[in-house]
Amino acid sequence: MAERRKRTVIRMLALAGLLGLLTACGAKPGGQGAQSAPPASQEQGTGFVPAGPHSYDSKDTAVLLKKDSQEGTVTLLNLDLGRTYTLTVEGTSDLYDKYGEAVSLEQIAVGDIVDVTFLRSKKRLNTMQVSPSSWVYADASRYEIDLRRGEVTIGEDVYKLTDDTLYLSQGMRIEAMELNPVDVLTFKGIGSSILSIQVEKGHGYLRLQNEENFIDGYMEIGQSSIRRIAEDMLLTVPEGHYQVRVSKRGGGGTKEVTIRRGEESTLDIGDLEVPEVQYGTIVFTLEPAQAKLYIDGEKADPSAPVNLEYGIHQLMVRANGYQTITTYIKVAQPSGGLDITLDPVDKENENDEQEEKDKLAQYKVFVDAPAFAEVYLDGNYVGIAPTSFPKSEGSHIITLRRSGCETRSYTVSVDNEYKDVTFSFAELIPGVSTQDTVTPPLSATPTPEPVPAP
Q1: Tell me, what's the pLDDT at 53?
Q2: Radius of gyration (Cα) for the chain, nearest Å?
Q3: Burial (Cβ within 10 Å: 0-12, 13-18, ≥19) of residue 145
Q4: How far from chain centre, in Å, is Cα 103?
Q5: What gap in Å lies between CA 341 and CA 289, rounded to an integer?
């Protein structure tokens, strides 16, 4: 009996040795995507196994909210729970780009979507990699954001905004409404969802000073924006340096202005020349022949040559059953001709749309707060909050301004429901927002140009 018990003990010891050998051969090194085997040593009788430098017990796909190289920390947003947490980055933490190449913390950007492994008990980062399943649209300037539907259209592709989509500008979180259609943005996401939007090139504000002689004239800001000049305008303009061309009755000139993000620039145009009125004669040919012509909002007779003052004019041509055309022409020579052809549309639908617009305009959009702030709608002055304006469906820019505070603008989506809408915005932040920019004219009068086709 004693001999049999002895042989049993020997077999158990041999089996234990074999298992130990197999475990040693099958162990994986610590690193990305694999949990390290626990160290062989442990405290006598406690069962405690100290964590190795590459140990982890948690993994996550998250958005990088903040990184602090000096403190050695990263703050992440969990995509499933919408919660934030902070991890310590140590010398043993491994960082990778999307393709698995080792990088530094500086090379991973705030707003990136990352796959992380970490040791929860010590809040220590083990690995962080820009997620291979993520995508990026960098420096996009042609897009459409519909906050009402929670959608973003980039090219022909439509993506969804989530409740946890991160909006960033200059390293700070902002509200979705603070994005402006003129901003240059970088979109990052997974699948059909956008998880972060970064403002790469933002916007500032332009105000004209001493513009009395040019009211109802036009100004061109750079190469892509034409606006009719009205009293007390405050325009939202992409940050950058521009030539601003002002014209009315053939007079005006060109000045330069620099727009900085979040700042208000004032351009004095009081010293531009206002010469005697000059006229050009324009012959219009409209198709269909019964189409109606409106110039600067006033009805004109296209059956005879039309005399127009030198400068920029807005044209609108409309006819029942046809698509309305709105465009600009520049009159800078004694005579010219313009042919305009309208495309047919469904007449019933066109009438219905106009009726809906007229009915909707009977309702109001109210801006209640911040109190006593100047309110501008798409650049035009509305009044002092609380104030209101007629309701019009679509995307609009509401700009708020108060002396001694930073000017702020919000992009809002107005629905087509037959009821009033009220917006209450956050209080304006005290600070200096105005940068006076007064520059001499580059030229006293515009260079004559032919009348362009629409």
Answers
A1: 65
A2: 32
A3: buried
A4: 29
A5: 9
Residues forming a β-bridge with 409: 399
Angle at 389 between CA 383 and CA 390, to 5 degrees: 160
Distances (CA, A) of 168 to 24, 197, 198, 202: 48, 6, 5, 11
Nearest one of 390, 379, 331 to 229, comparing CA atoms: 379
Helices (H), 138-189: none
Name the pairing type of β-strands 264-268 and 279-287.
unpaired
**Which H or E run includes 353?**
helix 347-360
Strands lying side by side in the sheet with 292-295 = 298-300, 292-295, 311-318, 325-331
Task: Return the sign of the alpha-carbon dihedral for residues 281, 284, 290, 291.
Answer: negative
315 has a pLDDT exceeding 50 = yes
User: Tens of pLDDT along 369-402?
Assistant: 999 999 999 999 999 999 999 999 989 999 999 9
For the whole model, what pTM was predicted? Answer: 0.71
Q: Are the C-beta atoms of residues 125 and 116 closer than 8 Å to each other?
A: yes
Distance CA 260, CA 33 (A): 45
pLDDT digits (tens, 9 = 90+) for 173-215: 999 999 999 999 999 999 999 999 999 999 999 999 999 989 9
Phi then psi dihedrals of residue 343, to 5 deg: -90, 140
Three-state secondary structure call for residue 11: helix
Distance CA 75, CA 84 (A): 7
pLDDT value of residue 39: 37
Q: Which of 39-48, 74-83, 122-131 has the highest mean pLDDT?
A: 122-131
Torsion on CA atoms 103, 105, 110, 112, rounded to nearest 10: 30
Task: State both tokens at 75.
Answer: 């703050």
Q: HSE of 298 in the Cβ direction (CA atoms, 13 Å)?
A: 7
Look-up of token digits 């698995």: 100
| Distance in angstroms (rounded) separating the CA atoms of residues 448 and 335 | 12
